[in-house]
Design a protein that fits this description.
By secondary structure, the chain is mainly alpha-helical. The chain has ten helices and no strands. The radius of gyration is 17 Å and the shape is globular.
């Protein structure tokens, strides 16, 4: 696929913004998916190609959070198992299901998250120092993580909100550590989704790698922002990004 300078700039800019948005909250694929589709990609190809950028930004974010001591690894295996299982199921659905399922699912997720932040902010933003629950102590968190994996494998856009609901809401991680674990989960289930998309030959690598360069830089900047930000600032940043996600989803409807 030939790519013009204008298209390259579009992918780099949207990738950079998506890298920031996805690392701090979620919904960055609301920018990158339309950008890929504007280039003439079918929805399923754009959905698959987008995962290249998501995968690379996740690596950068995980390394950054770990470097600053914000990646809690004590419970990571029980957290990752349901997300990986869900991611495989979701990716299979994305490869074969009608693309018009994605839009109402995306909008519903965004609206639910906005409502939670307004009505019960403590659910998504526990105080720093709040005792963390283990997955084994909260069986409901397993289902939240599984659902997040299915959703992320299927559509990707907005999966950060579902993961934050499980990690901050159910397991009670503060927003910084929840974001770090969210990126680890995203890295793992995106890898499993990528394998399936590669097998199905749905990825266009040149635009995917250009997009990835932008998302990696955005993720690098976002980790530094998240580490320095106050919890209250992160909460409102999450709310604002959720509103933008709702607007983007409505436009696509």
């Amino acid at each position: 696929m030939d790519i013009s300078l204008t298209q390259t700039a579009l992918l780099l800019i949207t990738g950079f913004l998506a890298g920031i948005i996805n690392t701090i909250a979620g919904g960055g694929s609301n920018l990158t998916l339309p950008a890929l589709m504007v280039m003439g990609m079918p929805a399923d190809v754009a959905n698959a190609t987008n995962r290249v950028g998501v995968f690379m930004q996740s690596i950068v974010a995980v390394v950054g959070f770990k470097k600053h001591g914000k990646l809690d690894s004590s419970d990571k295996v029980p957290i990752l198992i349901p997300t990986v299982v869900g991611g495989l199921i979701g990716a299979a659905g994305a490869a074969y299901a009608p693309s018009d399922w994605i839009k109402p699912l995306l909008l519903g997720t965004m609206l639910l998250m906005a409502m939670i932040i307004l009505v019960k902010p403590s659910m998504i933003s526990p105080e720093i120092g709040t005792p963390v629950n283990k997955v084994s102590q909260t069986p409901s968190s397993w289902w939240w993580l599984f659902i997040a994996g299915v959703y992320g494998g299927f559509v990707q856009a907005g999966v950060g909100f579902v993961l934050l609901a499980a990690l901050a809401g159910s397991l009670r991680y503060d927003l910084i550590r929840a974001n770090a674990l969210k990126m680890l989960c995203t890295l793992v289930f995106t890898f499993t989704a990528l394998i399936l998309f590669i097998i199905e030959d749905l990825i266009l690598w040149l635009p995917g790698l250009i997009l990835a360069f932008g998302t990696m830089f955005g993720a690098h900047i976002a980790v530094k922002m998240a580490i320095k930000a106050k919890p209250e600032t992160l909460k409102w940043a999450l709310f604002i990004m959720t509103l933008f996600g709702c607007a983007a989803a409505m436009i696509k409807l």
